[in-house]
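Table S5 (text form). Sequence records supplied for joint modeling of the two-component complex.
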Amino acid sequence: MGEVVKITDVTKVYTMGDQRVEALRGVSFTVRQGEFVAIMGASGSGKSTCMNMLGCLDVPTSGEYLLEGVNVGGLSRNELAEIRNNKIGFVFQGFNLLPRTTARENVELPLVYARMPAAARRERALAALERVGLAGRADHYSNQLSGGQQQRVAIARALVNEPAIIMADEPTGNLDSRTTVEIMAIFQELNRHGITILMVTHEPDVAAFTGRHLVFRDGTIIADTPNPSPAVAVTHEEAP
Amino acid sequence: MTTLWQSLLIALRALRVNKMRALLTMLGIIIGIAAVIAMVAIGAGASKMISDQISSIGSNLLLVLPGSTTSGGLRTGAGGTPTLTYDDARAIQTECPSVENVAPTVRGSAQIVYGNQNWSTIVMGCTPEMLVVRDWPLTTGRNISQSDVDGATKNCIIGQTVAENLFGDADPIGKIIRIKKIPFTVIGLLDHKGQSPQGTDQDDVIFVPLRTAQRKLFGSQFPNTVGAMMIQAKSADVLKKAEEEVAALLDQRHRIGPSRERDFTVRNLSEILAVSEQSSKVMSILLGAVASISLVVGGIGIMNIMLVSVTERTREIGIRMAIGAKQRDILLQFLTEAVLLTTVGGIIGMGLGVVGAMAVSKIMQWPTLISTEAIVIAFLFSAGVGVFFGFYPARKAANLNPIEALRYE
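The corresponding structure-token record, covering 649 residues in total, follows.
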């Protein structure tokens, strides 16, 4: 299987005034297509910085980042925006849906910026909502949905452009344990269909649903362990 | 195109969310545009009134007035001495190549009687050229002819005001009126002419043949003299030349030399009136300029509210950027919102301005003139204000760092 993400000796240094903060100090790893990887670590370990870089929201100070074989370093803001639009789907901790906007319109948003005609947009958005089990809620406004439903809309939005990889930053951080399992079930289902998923989390329970654990500490990877038998997320509705 | 349409939809939604705020923000533009439209309409109305009055006098006109003379150390004022004659007028007509028509006049006031009605008005002795020079058609009847002038007939043509006061609605043609107790036959009725630039009623007048006036009505010790001459040049281009020719000819005929002061004055009427037209134009530009200041103030209000809006929606901007909005998408979104605010405000302002101008002309009896030109310019200007004052906030939004914007609480 192909390498979706390949980063080699990546560093990220922030300068705040005369203070230098080394958020990443030489990180290298590869994510192959179809993997479900959990990035773990305490806050300040560099996992969020790494995630922002992998999501093309930020560029590394040094080192090389290949996304589907394309070197992302040195691209302009607009080129990065295009890559985010085509190849990456984001799921955030705080859902980050647009307020006063329906579920369908939220899901359509990446397609709007991809300049897709309205009819095709609508069709794709409805299909994505169906995949996350929200076909009946397409015309609900984001504030009319529960937290779990909002996160499912966000997942549909991440899916709709058929990205190379889904980046999820603490996707269950704002959810209760039951909803957490629901969301993880959706991720596992998507992963079974071949979608590559990278998920930042600090909860071992959540990481247990993934196939590989990358552990960060002080800007470096201290452990990269496969999880040969991930926990299977079973939702209550599906339980006998 | 789709992008622009999308931006418009997003902008409409954003404005719907903050209806009150949008309205208050627009108010500055509404007032500004309404003021500009109303002020320009009032200014243009005044300017048109003046230019109408100018053309009501006639075009390309010179006025020759008898000048002052000095007699025994005493100087009379302009027009104080009868120095111009009917022969002068004829000489000008034949000898000045740039002159089209000459209309010598004699004027005085007189009491007119018809039946049991009487009226005091201006009586002018003139030649057939008068109506040509003044560009003044007749409603009914005929003009004074050269044979009327030569034969000093007791025919007259009357203005609308005189006709109303003596005859009411009845047809005046063929009726006999008495001017200074002398019976005259009405042979023509003049069209309505309106106010002169000085505000006098031009329709309150009776024209009689020149010689009749000289000999029978306002007989003086110099029977051949005329009061003033209106001279029409062949075109506006030769007006100056005509003025010089007339002056030179009269200098020669009146034997004016270096030692003798001129006993006549030549005035260029169009020039005098052009000055007053100019001043009314300056006035309307000034009014417009004052009104534009309120537009600028309105624009600053737009900029202020757009900056607030960008800050409020930082997180939304972050989300849009994360899922693929380019900088120009964000720029366009906020610019569209600003332009929408100003153009909607502009359209409302236009409506108010037009209504305001009409109210002013109705209530205060001021003439106003609403030109489509002013409306189009005002509309483009309001859109321009949106672009100008919306650009800075929109660029600020587009330059946000997506990571920081996403983290914004």
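Note: Chain A touches chain B at residues 52, 55, 57-58, 77-78, 81-82, 84-86, 90, 92, 96-101, 109-110, 112-115, 117-118, 157, 161 (CB under 8 Å).
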